[in-house]
């Protein structure tokens, strides 16, 4: 299928009557690729939890720092970014290839509007490569099969899962999904994961309100439950911590404690 045909097919699948997480996230980050229903959902989140936009920004900053760390300190040259979201500044391939142009990145998302904009994610350096897989995180075997078109599974791969495990209910076994994604990867691969926590009553109220009308609900979990996703892996210091505390930039100003409503971690497969 030609790119134009794929985009047309994707747009035909877009439902503008219910909010979708990628589009709401785009609104929170100040983007323009959302609809009135997404903006309304985002405004509800901000009314009930005014720091939500800052949490979204801190998540993006963690992505940048973790990718930079893995490329510079761990020598990673392959990334599998699941739950990509809409293209924005400093996407995974831009950060990684800005340091190591030969880096290969596969993006995964199942939101049709992300697919419609996927061409913006495929602007690789000549030395590297990027690809896009249209799949739900609940289909790890399909994701791995299609990622193998671009990634070499005999060499370490970093799996990025930012704000995506929370979109998987306990009935769908999110920890089992993470294990299935990591199982075929070689030693020296990494898991990068971050999600919202159930430690802030205002955030719980905001997410509960969002879930009433959203296409896919979001599950807040305890920091201990999120840390459990790294079982069997070697967690990189400083461990599973609030997102601003993971290898903060030296010139980063202090954030108010009220925004610490998501935790993150990076871990190596032995």
Strand content bin: 5-15%
Average pLDDT, rounded to a whole number, is 88
Alpha-beta classification: alpha/beta
What about the largest sheet? 8 strands, mixed
Counted by DSSP, the helix tally is 10
Calculate the terminal CA-CA distance, rounded to whole Å.
40 Å
Low-confidence stretches: none
In which range does the helix fraction lie? 25-40%
Please identify the oligomeric state: single chain
Radius of gyration: 17 Å
What is the tally of beta strands? 8
> SSE order, as H and E?
HHHHEHEHEHEHEHHEEE
Q: What global shape is seen? A: globular
Characterise the protein shown here.
- This protein has 270 residues and is of the alpha/beta class.
- Helix content is 37%, strand content 15%.
- The protein is built from ten helices and eight strands.
- The chain has helices spanning 3-13, 21-28, 36-48, 52-73, 92-99, 112-116, 140-147, 174-182, 201-211, 223-227; strands at 78-82, 104-109, 129-134, 158-162, 190-196, 234-235, 241-242, 262-268.
- Strands 1, 2, 3, 4, 5, 6, 7 and 8 form an eight-stranded mixed β-sheet that branches.
- Helix 3 (36-48) packs antiparallel against helix 9 (201-211), helix 4 runs parallel beside helix 5 and helix 7 runs parallel beside helix 8.
- It is globular.
- The protein starts with a helix and ends with a strand.
């Amino acid at each position: 299928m030609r790119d134009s045909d794929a985009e047309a097919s994707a747009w035909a699948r877009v439902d503008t009557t219910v909010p979708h997480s990628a589009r709401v996230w785009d609104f929170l980050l100040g983007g323009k690729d959302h609809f009135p229903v997404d903006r309304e959902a985002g405004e509800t989140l901000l009314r009930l939890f005014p720091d939500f936009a800052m949490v979204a920004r801190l998540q993006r900053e963690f992505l940048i720092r973790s990718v930079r760390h893995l490329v510079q300190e761990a020598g990673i040259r392959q990334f599998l970014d699941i739950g990509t979201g809409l293209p924005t500044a400093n996407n995974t391939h831009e950060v990684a290839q800005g340091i190591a142009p030969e880096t290969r990145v596969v993006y995964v998302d199942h939101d049709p509007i992300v697919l419609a904009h996927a061409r913006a994610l495929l602007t690789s350096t000549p030395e590297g490569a990027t690809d896009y897989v249209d799949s739900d995180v609940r289909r790890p075997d399909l994701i791995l099969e299609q990622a193998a078109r671009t990634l070499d599974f005999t060499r370490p791969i970093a799996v990025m899962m930012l704000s995506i495990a929370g979109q998987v209910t306990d009935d769908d076994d999110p920890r089992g999904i993470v294990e299935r994604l990591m199982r075929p990867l070689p030693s020296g691969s990494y898991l990068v994961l971050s999600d919202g926590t159930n430690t802030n009553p205002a955030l719980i109220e905001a997410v509960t309100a969002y879930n009433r009308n959203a296409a896919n609900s979001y599950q807040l979990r305890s920091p201990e439950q999120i840390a459990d996703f790294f079982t069997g892996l070697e967690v990189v210091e400083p461990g599973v911590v609030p997102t601003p505390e993971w290898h903060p930039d030296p010139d980063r100003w202090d954030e108010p404690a009220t925004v610490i409503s998501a935790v993150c971690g990076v871990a190596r497969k032995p």
